Amino acid sequence: MKSVFFISDRTGITTESLGNALLTQFGSVDFRREVMPFVDTVHKADQAIMKINNHYMHEGIRPIVFTSIINPEIRNKFKLNYVCYMDFFESFIPALEEEIGQQASLAIGQSHGISDEGKYYKRIDAIDYSLYNDDGVTSKNFDEADVILIGVSRVGKTPTCLYLAINYGIKAANYPLAETDLKHDKLPKALVPHHGKLFGLTIDVDRLHFIRTNRLPNTEYAKISTCTSEIAAAEHIMQVYDIPYLNTSRRSIEEIAVAIMQSINLHRKF
Questions:
Q1: d(Cα 101, Cα 95) in Å, to the nearest integer?
Q2: What would the CATH number be for the domain defined by 2-100?
Q3: In the CATH hierarchy, which top-level class contains the domain 117-263?
Protein backbone atom coordinates (compact mmCIF):
# COMPACT_ATOMS: atom_id res chain seq x y z
CA MET A 1 0.00 0.00 0.00
CA LYS A 2 1.29 3.45 -0.93
CA SER A 3 0.52 6.41 1.34
CA VAL A 4 -0.72 9.62 -0.26
CA PHE A 5 -0.94 12.96 1.53
CA PHE A 6 -2.99 15.93 0.29
CA ILE A 7 -1.62 19.03 2.01
CA SER A 8 -3.10 22.51 1.72
CA ASP A 9 -3.03 25.87 3.45
CA ARG A 10 -6.82 25.95 3.14
CA THR A 11 -9.50 23.22 3.10
CA GLY A 12 -7.60 20.72 0.95
CA ILE A 13 -10.70 20.07 -1.17
CA THR A 14 -9.11 21.20 -4.42
CA THR A 15 -5.82 19.44 -3.69
CA GLU A 16 -7.60 16.19 -2.90
CA SER A 17 -9.81 16.42 -5.99
CA LEU A 18 -6.93 17.09 -8.37
CA GLY A 19 -4.71 14.48 -6.75
CA ASN A 20 -7.40 11.83 -6.81
CA ALA A 21 -8.11 12.61 -10.47
CA LEU A 22 -4.51 11.64 -11.20
CA LEU A 23 -4.53 8.57 -8.94
CA THR A 24 -7.62 7.12 -10.63
CA GLN A 25 -5.38 6.35 -13.60
CA PHE A 26 -3.62 3.74 -11.45
CA GLY A 27 -6.58 1.57 -10.52
CA SER A 28 -4.54 -1.53 -9.65
CA VAL A 29 -2.59 0.29 -6.91
CA ASP A 30 -3.87 0.38 -3.33
CA PHE A 31 -3.51 3.89 -1.90
CA ARG A 32 -3.90 5.02 1.70
CA ARG A 33 -5.08 8.62 1.52
CA GLU A 34 -4.90 11.38 4.13
CA VAL A 35 -5.90 15.04 3.84
CA MET A 36 -4.02 17.65 5.91
CA PRO A 37 -5.85 20.99 5.66
CA PHE A 38 -4.89 24.45 6.98
CA VAL A 39 -1.14 23.85 6.96
CA ASP A 40 -0.45 27.57 6.91
CA THR A 41 2.50 27.97 9.32
CA VAL A 42 6.01 26.55 9.49
CA HIS A 43 5.10 24.81 12.75
CA LYS A 44 2.11 23.05 11.18
CA ALA A 45 4.30 22.06 8.24
CA ASP A 46 6.86 20.53 10.59
CA GLN A 47 4.09 18.55 12.32
CA ALA A 48 2.82 17.28 8.97
CA ILE A 49 6.35 16.30 7.92
CA MET A 50 6.83 14.32 11.13
CA LYS A 51 3.71 12.33 10.29
CA ILE A 52 4.81 11.75 6.70
CA ASN A 53 8.25 10.66 7.91
CA ASN A 54 6.73 8.23 10.42
CA HIS A 55 4.72 6.57 7.67
CA TYR A 56 7.79 6.33 5.47
CA MET A 57 9.89 4.78 8.26
CA HIS A 58 7.12 2.33 9.17
CA GLU A 59 6.14 1.31 5.64
CA GLY A 60 9.48 1.63 3.87
CA ILE A 61 7.71 2.96 0.77
CA ARG A 62 8.08 6.48 -0.61
CA PRO A 63 4.81 8.34 0.01
CA ILE A 64 3.23 10.66 -2.53
CA VAL A 65 2.71 14.26 -1.38
CA PHE A 66 0.33 16.56 -3.25
CA THR A 67 0.36 20.17 -2.06
CA SER A 68 -1.28 23.48 -2.91
CA ILE A 69 0.48 25.94 -0.63
CA ILE A 70 0.95 29.61 -1.49
CA ASN A 71 3.78 30.48 0.92
CA PRO A 72 7.06 29.26 -0.67
CA GLU A 73 8.78 28.93 2.74
CA ILE A 74 6.11 26.47 3.87
CA ARG A 75 5.78 24.80 0.47
CA ASN A 76 9.50 24.14 0.09
CA LYS A 77 9.66 22.24 3.38
CA PHE A 78 7.81 19.36 1.70
CA LYS A 79 10.49 18.91 -0.97
CA LEU A 80 11.87 15.88 0.83
CA ASN A 81 14.19 13.35 -0.78
CA TYR A 82 12.10 10.43 0.49
CA VAL A 83 8.76 11.52 -1.02
CA CYS A 84 7.27 11.91 -4.47
CA TYR A 85 6.41 15.62 -4.27
CA MET A 86 3.96 17.51 -6.49
CA ASP A 87 2.69 21.04 -5.90
CA PHE A 88 -0.18 22.28 -8.04
CA PHE A 89 0.73 25.97 -7.75
CA GLU A 90 4.32 25.36 -8.80
CA SER A 91 3.15 23.19 -11.67
CA PHE A 92 0.72 25.66 -13.21
CA ILE A 93 1.14 29.23 -11.92
CA PRO A 94 4.47 30.04 -13.68
CA ALA A 95 3.11 28.99 -17.09
CA LEU A 96 -0.07 31.03 -16.51
CA GLU A 97 1.92 34.07 -15.40
CA GLU A 98 3.97 33.89 -18.58
CA GLU A 99 0.92 33.45 -20.79
CA ILE A 100 -1.15 36.19 -19.13
CA GLY A 101 1.79 38.55 -18.66
CA GLN A 102 0.94 39.24 -15.05
CA GLN A 103 2.15 38.02 -11.68
CA ALA A 104 -0.29 35.87 -9.70
CA SER A 105 -1.66 37.51 -6.56
CA LEU A 106 -0.74 34.44 -4.45
CA ALA A 107 -3.61 35.19 -2.08
CA ILE A 108 -4.70 32.36 0.19
CA GLY A 109 -8.27 31.05 0.10
CA GLN A 110 -9.48 32.49 -3.20
CA SER A 111 -11.08 29.29 -4.48
CA HIS A 112 -13.21 28.54 -1.40
CA GLY A 113 -13.56 31.91 0.30
CA ILE A 114 -16.70 34.06 0.28
CA SER A 115 -15.46 36.33 -2.50
CA ASP A 116 -18.98 37.02 -3.79
CA GLU A 117 -21.69 37.04 -1.14
CA GLY A 118 -24.47 36.93 -3.75
CA LYS A 119 -23.13 33.68 -5.16
CA TYR A 120 -22.52 32.30 -1.69
CA TYR A 121 -26.11 32.84 -0.61
CA LYS A 122 -27.43 31.33 -3.83
CA ARG A 123 -25.58 28.18 -2.87
CA ILE A 124 -26.99 28.26 0.68
CA ASP A 125 -30.53 28.78 -0.65
CA ALA A 126 -30.14 25.83 -3.01
CA ILE A 127 -28.88 23.58 -0.20
CA ASP A 128 -31.75 24.62 2.08
CA TYR A 129 -34.20 23.97 -0.73
CA SER A 130 -32.87 20.49 -1.46
CA LEU A 131 -32.91 19.51 2.20
CA TYR A 132 -36.45 20.81 2.72
CA ASN A 133 -37.77 19.13 -0.43
CA ASP A 134 -36.10 15.77 0.07
CA ASP A 135 -37.73 12.38 -0.40
CA GLY A 136 -41.19 13.70 -1.30
CA VAL A 137 -41.75 15.17 2.17
CA THR A 138 -43.56 18.08 0.52
CA SER A 139 -44.44 19.05 -3.02
CA LYS A 140 -45.72 22.55 -2.36
CA ASN A 141 -42.40 24.13 -3.36
CA PHE A 142 -41.95 22.23 -6.63
CA ASP A 143 -42.70 25.43 -8.57
CA GLU A 144 -39.31 26.73 -7.43
CA ALA A 145 -37.40 23.61 -8.44
CA ASP A 146 -34.87 23.61 -11.27
CA VAL A 147 -35.15 19.82 -11.43
CA ILE A 148 -37.12 17.11 -9.64
CA LEU A 149 -35.46 13.71 -9.45
CA ILE A 150 -37.68 10.65 -9.36
CA GLY A 151 -36.95 6.96 -8.90
CA VAL A 152 -37.35 4.07 -6.48
CA SER A 153 -35.81 4.16 -3.03
CA ARG A 154 -31.98 4.06 -2.81
CA VAL A 155 -31.05 4.97 -6.38
CA GLY A 156 -29.08 8.06 -5.29
CA LYS A 157 -31.65 10.86 -5.45
CA THR A 158 -30.76 12.64 -2.21
CA PRO A 159 -26.95 12.77 -2.60
CA THR A 160 -27.35 13.90 -6.21
CA CYS A 161 -29.70 16.71 -5.18
CA LEU A 162 -27.27 17.92 -2.55
CA TYR A 163 -24.33 17.72 -4.94
CA LEU A 164 -26.23 19.81 -7.50
CA ALA A 165 -27.06 22.37 -4.81
CA ILE A 166 -23.57 22.62 -3.32
CA ASN A 167 -21.60 22.68 -6.54
CA TYR A 168 -23.97 24.36 -8.99
CA GLY A 169 -26.57 26.21 -6.94
CA ILE A 170 -29.32 24.07 -8.52
CA LYS A 171 -32.58 23.82 -6.59
CA ALA A 172 -33.14 20.08 -6.81
CA ALA A 173 -36.08 18.31 -5.20
CA ASN A 174 -36.66 14.59 -5.23
CA TYR A 175 -39.71 12.36 -5.14
CA PRO A 176 -39.57 8.61 -4.44
CA LEU A 177 -41.77 6.39 -6.58
CA ALA A 178 -43.46 4.40 -3.82
CA GLU A 179 -45.31 1.10 -4.00
CA THR A 180 -48.69 2.78 -4.56
CA ASP A 181 -47.32 4.84 -7.46
CA LEU A 182 -45.72 1.81 -9.08
CA LYS A 183 -48.78 -0.38 -8.60
CA HIS A 184 -51.08 2.07 -10.42
CA ASP A 185 -48.54 2.54 -13.22
CA LYS A 186 -49.20 6.28 -13.32
CA LEU A 187 -47.23 9.42 -12.67
CA PRO A 188 -48.12 10.70 -9.16
CA LYS A 189 -50.56 13.62 -9.21
CA ALA A 190 -48.09 15.87 -7.38
CA LEU A 191 -45.65 15.52 -10.28
CA VAL A 192 -48.02 16.02 -13.22
CA PRO A 193 -47.90 19.86 -13.20
CA HIS A 194 -44.08 19.72 -13.16
CA HIS A 195 -43.54 17.19 -15.92
CA GLY A 196 -40.98 19.38 -17.69
CA LYS A 197 -38.73 19.43 -14.60
CA LEU A 198 -38.66 15.68 -14.04
CA PHE A 199 -35.56 13.54 -14.42
CA GLY A 200 -35.46 9.85 -13.53
CA LEU A 201 -32.77 7.77 -11.88
CA THR A 202 -32.68 4.00 -12.19
CA ILE A 203 -30.23 1.27 -11.18
CA ASP A 204 -29.26 -2.34 -11.87
CA VAL A 205 -31.26 -4.90 -9.89
CA ASP A 206 -28.21 -6.53 -8.32
CA ARG A 207 -26.84 -3.18 -7.22
CA LEU A 208 -30.14 -2.09 -5.64
CA HIS A 209 -30.47 -5.47 -3.92
CA PHE A 210 -26.98 -5.06 -2.45
CA ILE A 211 -27.66 -1.51 -1.20
CA ARG A 212 -31.03 -2.36 0.34
CA THR A 213 -29.71 -5.56 1.94
CA ASN A 214 -26.97 -3.57 3.68
CA ARG A 215 -29.54 -1.08 4.88
CA LEU A 216 -32.42 -3.37 5.88
CA PRO A 217 -31.42 -7.05 5.60
CA ASN A 218 -34.01 -9.84 5.54
CA THR A 219 -36.91 -7.56 4.62
CA GLU A 220 -39.42 -7.55 1.81
CA TYR A 221 -37.97 -4.18 0.82
CA ALA A 222 -34.55 -5.74 0.15
CA LYS A 223 -35.68 -8.89 -1.67
CA ILE A 224 -34.37 -9.20 -5.19
CA SER A 225 -37.91 -9.84 -6.44
CA THR A 226 -39.04 -6.53 -4.93
CA CYS A 227 -36.08 -4.70 -6.45
CA THR A 228 -36.78 -6.26 -9.85
CA SER A 229 -40.47 -5.38 -9.93
CA GLU A 230 -39.96 -1.83 -8.62
CA ILE A 231 -37.23 -0.97 -11.13
CA ALA A 232 -39.26 -2.39 -14.03
CA ALA A 233 -42.37 -0.43 -12.98
CA ALA A 234 -40.45 2.81 -12.44
CA GLU A 235 -38.69 2.59 -15.82
CA HIS A 236 -42.03 1.85 -17.48
CA ILE A 237 -43.53 5.05 -16.00
CA MET A 238 -40.54 7.07 -17.18
CA GLN A 239 -40.83 5.65 -20.69
CA VAL A 240 -44.61 6.11 -20.94
CA TYR A 241 -44.42 9.71 -19.74
CA ASP A 242 -41.30 10.47 -21.80
CA ILE A 243 -39.17 11.37 -18.77
CA PRO A 244 -35.40 11.33 -19.41
CA TYR A 245 -33.53 9.01 -17.07
CA LEU A 246 -30.17 7.37 -16.53
CA ASN A 247 -28.72 4.36 -14.74
CA THR A 248 -26.67 5.27 -11.65
CA SER A 249 -25.10 1.85 -11.04
CA ARG A 250 -21.62 2.61 -12.36
CA ARG A 251 -21.60 6.38 -12.16
CA SER A 252 -20.21 8.64 -9.47
CA ILE A 253 -22.36 11.41 -7.98
CA GLU A 254 -20.29 13.90 -9.98
CA GLU A 255 -21.00 12.07 -13.24
CA ILE A 256 -24.71 11.75 -12.47
CA ALA A 257 -25.00 15.48 -11.71
CA VAL A 258 -23.20 16.58 -14.88
CA ALA A 259 -25.20 14.14 -17.02
CA ILE A 260 -28.46 15.53 -15.62
CA MET A 261 -27.42 19.13 -16.28
CA GLN A 262 -26.38 18.35 -19.84
CA SER A 263 -29.49 16.32 -20.57
CA ILE A 264 -32.00 18.96 -19.53
CA ASN A 265 -29.82 22.03 -20.21
CA LEU A 266 -29.33 23.26 -16.66
CA HIS A 267 -26.66 25.84 -15.94
CA ARG A 268 -24.59 26.71 -12.88
CA LYS A 269 -26.27 29.43 -10.82
CA PHE A 270 -23.06 31.02 -9.60
A1: 10
A2: 3.40.50
A3: alpha beta
